[in-house]
């Protein structure tokens, strides 16, 4: 999937000026990838994801999915395209007037799939999402997690190559969120479905995504592999997001509190997979006779790779500490707090 | 105490006429609910689908439909029935009697039902419609297979409400000799100082409304319980 210079503006409404919800976005998503898009509400991520299946038409730019250009397509052509794009929602959006079975049959009816094939497909998917006994239940009798699992099954009935997830876990408790994310990972792994997930929860990005794009004011301000973005966030908004799940450095208040409890100079060190190890750092301090204490931060693991942001309090003769700080800075990215 | 009951009532000899009037009312109301109900539903869909953000958003059509509904709906039926008499002559060939009453009832109820059902349709969460669009459903398919079924429980209550309102309106039929329980109660009860006849008609109407309301509530609750 290739997005180039994608712009979506809403015309000026009474008393309001024109709104640019998506502002000149470039984004590439490889087939089979799980791409997360994060941002605060109003950042434009919801609009962006609706451009991908043409629920909202882009104002200008180019959106190519598997070689098909979406921008400028007619509604009729978009409808055919949508059969190959599943979508799940924060509020699940199940049809309350239909049973679970009826919900799953709906997209198959649109696709013109015969009854026998429908039967096979629906029962297969209900088993996949672990709800084979709920076929004849109405959605109102399901829990939130079960509803989202039905939503996922419904989105997969036509065997789409792309699945759009619009805050799919934001209405769920942490444990159910975990369950749904595991299910989405299985969808990606077993069916090879490309997933584009928008969220404001970094926990979701960490657990689910391969790549992440950070949006702010309609623009994509940072993109990259999840590990890279988590371990080295570049933009202030990215740092704020990463900071919600990863301890970077203590806030001003936390720092002041730490200083009352710990003497010495505070240095934040960044340890990255493949770089110098903790033993190298501690060897330097040991050599200089500097006492140290870990006062903030820790080791994170993302997709099998680890990184750490460690804030140490260094204590010892001034000259030794100076020397140690200089040597540490040469070894790893270091910052005196 | 028993002497307080009117003894000079003709209700005994009038029973056959009362049942005939009841039949007229039932037929009047049934025809109105059937034809007016369908026309009202279509008008409601028009209002709902063309409104801002609707599946067939169209400012001009929406404004025209709204003007039409807002123009006819507030007219009291007793005036409405007289005002549309020329139209009745044109369509059903007569300005008086049963056909003219049914014609007026259909026309008047259609606008009321349109507004009620429109409000029922608005209760369908936009997200559900968006989900159907995301699946590749056409707009017409969404209107028929998502919007209507999802709003069915409130729509049934809406029609129940309309039914009771039509029973009320049908009592005015006597104005143009349309028959029914309402005019029977006026002619043989009120004008002939026979409150027993009036009250018999009232009780039949109340019973009718009770039965309809019960049916509507039960049906709606059964759908909601899903």
TrEMBL record, chain A:
GO molecular function: ATP binding
Keywords: Amino-acid transport, ATP-binding, Cell membrane, Membrane, Nucleotide-binding, Translocase, Transport
Record keyword ATP-binding present: yes
Domain ABC transporter positions: 1-242
Entry keyword Lyase: no
Pfam families assigned: ABC_tran, NIL
Name of the protein this chain belongs to: Methionine import ATP-binding protein MetN
Organism ancestry: Bacteria, Bacillati, Actinomycetota, Actinomycetes, Propionibacteriales
Gene giving rise to this polypeptide: metN
TrEMBL record, chain B:
Domain ABC transmembrane type-1: 22-216
Keyword Cell membrane: yes
Assigned keywords, A-Z: Cell membrane, Membrane, Transmembrane, Transmembrane helix, Transport
InterPro entries with a match to the protein in the record: AA_ABC_Transporter_Permease, MetI-like, MetI-like_sf
Transmembrane stretches, start-end: 26-48, 60-84, 90-113, 156-177, 197-216
Matches recorded under PROSITE patterns: ABC_TM1
Similarity comment: family membership: Belongs to the binding-protein-dependent transport system permease family.
Membrane topology: Multi-pass membrane protein
Keyword Transmembrane helix: yes
Designated name of the protein: ABC transporter permease
Cited Pfam families: BPD_transp_1
Location of the protein in the cell: Cell membrane
């Amino acid at each position: 999937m290739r997005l180039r210079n994608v712009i979506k503006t809403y015309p000026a409404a009474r008393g309001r000026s024109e709104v640019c919800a998506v502002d000149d976005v470039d984004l590439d998503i490889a087939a089979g990838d799980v791409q997360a898009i994060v941002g605060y509400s109003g950042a434009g991520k919801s609009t962006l994801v609706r451009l991908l299946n043409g629920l909202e038409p882009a104002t200008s730019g180019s959106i190519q999915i598997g070689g098909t250009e979406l921008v400028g397509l007619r509604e009729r052509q978009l409808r055919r395209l949508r059969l190959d794009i599943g979508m799940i929602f924060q509020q699940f959006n199940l049809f309350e007037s239909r049973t679970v079975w009826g919900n799953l049959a709906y997209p198959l009816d649109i696709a013109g799939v015969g009854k026998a094939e429908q039967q096979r497909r629906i029962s297969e998917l209900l088993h996949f999402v672990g709800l084979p006994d709920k076929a004849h239940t109405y959605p109102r009798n399901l829990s939130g997690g079960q509803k989202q699992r039905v939503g996922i099954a419904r989105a997969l009935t036509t065997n789409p190559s792309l699945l759009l997830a619009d805050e799919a876990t934001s209405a769920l408790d942490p444990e159910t969120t975990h369950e749904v994310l595991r299910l989405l990972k299985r969808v990606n792994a077993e069916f090879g479905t490309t997933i584009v997930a928008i969220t404001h929860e970094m926990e979701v990005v960490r657990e689910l995504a391969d790549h992440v794009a950070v949006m702010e004011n309609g623009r994509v301000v940072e993109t990259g592999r999840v590990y890279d973005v988590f371990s080295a966030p570049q933009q202030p908004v990215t740092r704020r997001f990463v900071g919600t799940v990863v301890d970077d450095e203590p806030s001003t208040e936390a720092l002041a509190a730490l200083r009352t409890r710990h003497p010495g100079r505070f240095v934040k060190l960044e340890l990255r997979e493949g770089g110098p190890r903790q033993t190298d750092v501690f060897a330097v301090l040991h050599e200089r006779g500097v006492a140290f204490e870990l006062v903030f931060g820790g080791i994170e693991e993302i997709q099998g790779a680890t990184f750490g942001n460690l804030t140490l309090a260094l204590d010892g003769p001034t000259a030794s500490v100076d020397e140690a700080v200089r040597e540490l800075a040469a070894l790893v990215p270091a910052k005196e707090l | 105490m028993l002497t307080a009951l009117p003894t000079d009532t003709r209700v005994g000899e009038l029973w056959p006429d009362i049942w005939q009037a009841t039949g007229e009312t039932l037929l009047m109301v049934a025809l109105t609910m059937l034809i007016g109900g369908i026309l009202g539903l279509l008008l409601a869909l028009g209002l709902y689908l063309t409104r801002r953000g609707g599946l067939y958003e169209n400012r001009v059509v929406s404004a025209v439909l709204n003007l039409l509904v807002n123009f006819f709906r507030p007219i009291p039926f007793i005036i409405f029935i007289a005002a549309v008499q020329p139209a009745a002559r044109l369509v059903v060939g007569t300005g008086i009697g049963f056909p003219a009453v049914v014609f007026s009832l259909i026309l008047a109820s259609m606008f009321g039902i349109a507004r009620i059902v429109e409000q029922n349709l608005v209760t369908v969460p936009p997200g559900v419609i968006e989900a159907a669009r995301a699946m590749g459903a056409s707009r017409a398919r969404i209107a028929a297979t998502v919007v209507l079924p999802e709003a069915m429980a409130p729509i049934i209550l809406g029609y129940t409400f309309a039914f009771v309102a039509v029973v009320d309106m049908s009592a005015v039929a006597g104005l143009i000799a349309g028959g029914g329980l309402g005019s029977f109660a006026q002619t043989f009860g009120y004008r002939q100082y026979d409150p027993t006849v009036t009250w018999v008609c009232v009780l039949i109407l109340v019973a009718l409304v009770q039965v309809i309301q019960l049916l509507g509530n039960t049906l709606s609750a059964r759908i909601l319980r899903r």
